[in-house]
Amino acid sequence: MAPRRRDPDRRDQIVAAAVEVITESGPHALTHRAAAARAGVPLGSTTYHFADLEELLGAALLAVAERNVARLRRWASSLAPEADLAVELADFLVLLSTRHRQSSVVAYELYSAALRRPGLRAASTAWDAMLTEVFAPHVPDPAALTAMFDGLLHQALVSPTRVTRETFEPSLRRVLTS
């Protein structure tokens, strides 16, 4: 009998598949079976890598948050020293709520799921910590900016109207100058 080969990327494949399931149908649609089918792996692989659904949801939330924060880090590193941060952040919020809408919606669906699922809270607070870390070099109160950013993006995602820079800039300017 040949020895079993271990696939070192299998856990990441399952997490990526879980994110795809959530993207298509929402967090309620995620099951071990759905993730395994999407990843093309045996069902036992999902239960081997994730003790329960909370752990799989937490891993998916962290993966989405890390991807979105990586986008934010690229944005922050591209800022010119003389940039108007209120304008730049407003434009970035527009980008997240339009071109990257699907990824932003998934992040907030998972973030909101933590309200009723304590197992997801560590991953959702990690998202806030990562945002605060990215904002820290640019503002004196990064926690306030994180809260504002989260709230404005959430509002943009649920708004029935298309958002623009002007939607966000005045509020951002107030928090940045206080």
TrEMBL record:
PROSITE patterns: HTH_TETR_2 (PS50977). One of its GO terms (molecular function) is DNA-binding transcription factor activity. Residues 31-50 bind DNA. Pfam families: TetR_C_31, TetR_N. Residues 8-68 form the HTH tetR-type domain. Keywords: DNA-binding. The keyword Repeat does not apply. This is TetR family transcriptional regulator. It comes from Actinokineospora globicatena. The lineage of its organism: Bacteria, Bacillati, Actinomycetota, Actinomycetes, Pseudonocardiales.
